[in-house]
């Protein structure tokens, strides 16, 4: 997965050498960037290189990095000083703890220290960029870039601008992440939790309720997701799942299953019906991606993709 680095950016700074900071160091260094990782904790600075080397060794064993791990690690340096880390950086990826006041203080420092052209991105899982960057002189270059964890394995990364973020900042961030082998998804608004964690949270809330209500055990719920929903979702998403599960596509699925899902939501105090207008919008987007004439062929493709995953599980003795 090694690739030429973004020609407009040669250096990426990472603030924080915890699990996400280490993971991002792998992503950017694997892509050819020079990476500077800052952390005030000497223990983390000492431990992180070994962690990176171990993960690179595993990635190499699975053919997920083209270079020797040592060559990738050579592009990563560690420092205690924030100013040293961000000097000359084209993008700064903040990976500090998920606390609003920490991020406010840190972004004020980054805005003061980083080059004026640098994109300032936060790895925040839920905190809106407008909550920690509003009022900064350089607020227009601030956004959230929230990865799946770990980003060296999960390619999706949410790009969440604030209303004041410059569109050019968004474009430059997207370019750097694409050059790094990630798949940026532009989040059009900035709800708490963005998209990734709102979807994940919906499933977790229901899972907790099912355990609470004595419906199923923790292990049984994990099995249903791992061997059912999760297996299928590793190939196609929830809208395409519904689209392919019902002959006639997602409009037919909504007509048949919508009332039952509405009743399930009502049990939890939710009132979010699939209105005809909303179903029509989803139907239009799905038909633009998959005309109904191609529906049967896509079902065959889905089944074969699942067969390949099941064969991989069997071959590697995975559950």
- Determine the fraction of residues in helical runs and give it as a percent range: 40-55%
**Rg to the nearest angstrom?**
22 Å
What strand order characterises the main sheet?
3-2-1-4-5-6-7-8
Shape: globular
What ranges have pLDDT less than 50 throughout 5 or more consecutive residues?
Answer: 1-5
Give the second-level CATH assignment, the architecture of the largest domain: 3-Layer(aba) Sandwich
Order of helices and strands: EHEHHEHEHEHEEHEHHHHHH
For the biggest sheet, the summary is: 8 strands, mixed
**Classification by helices and strands:** alpha/beta
- Count of beta strands: 8
Write out key terms for the chains shown:
globular; N-(1-d-carboxylethyl)-l-norvaline Dehydrogenase, domain 2; alpha/beta; 13 helices; eight-stranded mixed β-sheet; Rossmann fold; 319 residues
Give an overview in words.
- It is globular and about 60 Å long.
- With 319 residues, it is an alpha/beta fold.
- The chain has helices at 19-30, 42-61, 69-73, 82-86, 100-113, 129-133, 167-179, 196-212, 218-233, 238-245, 250-267, 276-289, 295-315; strands at residues 11-15, 34-38, 76-79, 91-94, 119-122, 142-147, 156-161, 183-186.
- Helix 7 links the parallel strand 7 (156-161) and strand 8.
- The chain folds into 2 domains: 11-186, 3-Layer(aba) Sandwich (Rossmann fold), CATH 3.40.50; 196-315, N-(1-d-carboxylethyl)-l-norvaline Dehydrogenase, domain 2, CATH 1.10.1040.10.
